[in-house]
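Fold it.
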Amino acid sequence: MTRSLSDPVTLCMADYAQAQTWPKLPEAVRVHTLRAWVNFVACATGGATMPSVDAAVTGLLSMGGGDIPNLGRRERTSLPDAALLGSLAASAHTYDDTHLSTITHPTGPVASAILATAYQLGTVDRPVSGEQMLNALAIGLELECRVSCAIKAGGADMGWYMTGLSGAIGASAAVGRLLNLSHTQMVYALGLAASQAGGVRAAHGSMAITFAPGLGARDGVVAAHLAAADYACNANTIEGRNGLLQALTGGHDASLIRTDLGDRYESLNNAFKPYPCGIVIHPAIDACLHLQRTHTIRHQDIERIELKVHPDALTLCWRKLPDTVLEAQVSLYHWVGASLVFGAAGIAQGTLESVLNADSRRLQACVETITDAALQDNQAIVKIRLRDGREFEHFTRDATGSVTNPMNDQQLSAKFIELVMPVLGERRAQSLLAKCLDMASVNGAAEILQLGAR
């Protein structure tokens, strides 16, 4: 259906959510969506035993339980809480995917919402196939990323936690598709999700860094189920007067949401992380690891480190000498120091022992950083000066894991095993990986949760 530019953008979004089918998606989108699913299951399962998730489970169960299993956990919770926990766990290691141009982590809210919903539907004889889940995921990712683009283009980005603003919208569309909402109900769901948008980046460096994505999943589930009961919402909640875009940006421009919707896929600009920290740190990590390995630099010999980074790296990850794991996840300085001391930048380098390591902290104190707006957000320059006067420099042109230099399938599978094996053991981790890689053939969410829940 051709829509007028004067029509509310939620009508276009609902058209898209109802019309898209998995077989008709371009092959590149199908492949990318499957990779997003594999990455989500890895991050959610691997993050499930983090202290932030333990605390969240305790708090949620104090308000009542439910029947939905959770990846990496023994407890069962209500449907909204399962959606919240899955997304929250997926971001617990700061290893979740990132739509770099908007700093949105799109898959967690959408994938967690559909996994919990599909499981619940299966218990009432409304089974959801793996292909249907992947199609719903693709729908949610595309709409979420487009909403984030519209918000950022209007000037609202760094202070707001973007995933909290757009995550529920993507999740509501995906869940709405699984619930077979009518067009009118889908418009309600999108509006209800937009009306719950929120989250600020001041929460970074604490457990609450995971809260906004979790709320996005939960709020999307609630919005879709209320819409299914004909709980009505205005169609202009995104770009209308006092709508989401005006409230955040002062404007009404929804063109980045509607233009070429269904023909061009913004979700293809989503990237999967090779390192468990803010993605804006990754170019500097790449450069440090390259220098350390190429020149066999001993960290004891380092006198000074000069960083030249994209402005986002300091705006988002400015913390120096962090004292906690959570602060270190968003510390450019910690990961520069740790990668040079340990010659790696994985889960082990994000532990408290590594965060408090005296050698790593000495290097952080040696770092001088400047920002350069001419650099792309996946680029950085690192220069290391040794005590004997020698200098080594490296320019990261395309950071590992970025859209221009993505993780390959072998790297993504290795990341999956790294995260999941400590929680489920090697045999179950391998079985779950195989199941996720063949997701289009899976009969339902129960197959994933039977392997992934403890």
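The CA atoms of residues 16 and 187 lie 11 Å apart.
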